[in-house]
Amino acid sequence: MSIIIKNLQEIQQKLKKRKGENDITYFKEIDKNIQEENKITTLSITILKTIDKAFELIKLIEKKYLNLKKQIETEKDKFEKDYLEEIDILKENLIINLESLKNYSKYELSEYSKEEIDEIKETIKETREYNQILSNLIS
Fold it and tell me: How far apart, in Å, are the Cα atoms of 52 and each of 42, 47, 61, 81, 120?
């Protein structure tokens, strides 16, 4: 009987030893799983930070785009305004020149002969045509 008890005790010790080994293996497996989860969590955090940075860059690009668009519109408006002002000045000068020529020709016509008057009229006509062409080009 003592041999049986002794054998049972040895079996019990072996089982305890195996159970302890199983416990250590189990805890090692848990630790390994925790480390893997930590790696995944760290990677997820890195990905989220990268996405946040991408959105910040998108916002910055959008802001710069809107600023450039506004600047282009401002420059375009300024150019159009300057261009239209220049055209208005040219038109006014053209009108003034035509009026002066008209007034001058009325005043001076009395001193010229019929042929000279016809020549002056032709010159005035050509000048008007030329000015009309210029006016059309400007418009």
Answer: 15, 9, 14, 43, 80
Kindly report the number of other CB atoms within 10 A of residue 77's CB atom: 10
DSSP label of 112: S
Indicate the pTM of the whole model.
Answer: 0.43
110 vs 101: CA distance, rounded Å:
15
- CB 81: neighbour CB atoms within 10 A? 10
Domain ranges of the chain: 2-138
Q: What letters, b where the CB count within 10 A reaches 16 and e where it falls short, cover 22-40?
A: eeeeeeeeeeeeeeeeeee
Residue type for position 92:
E
Q: Which residues contact 131 (CB under 8 A, 6 or more apart)?
A: 94, 97, 98
Give the closest residue to 127 by CA, choosing from 94, 104, 103: 94
Helix axes 114-138, 2-108, angle to 10 degrees: 170
pLDDT digits (tens, 9 = 90+) for 57-105: 999 999 999 999 999 999 888 888 888 888 888 888 888 877 777 776 5
DSSP three-state, residue 1:
coil
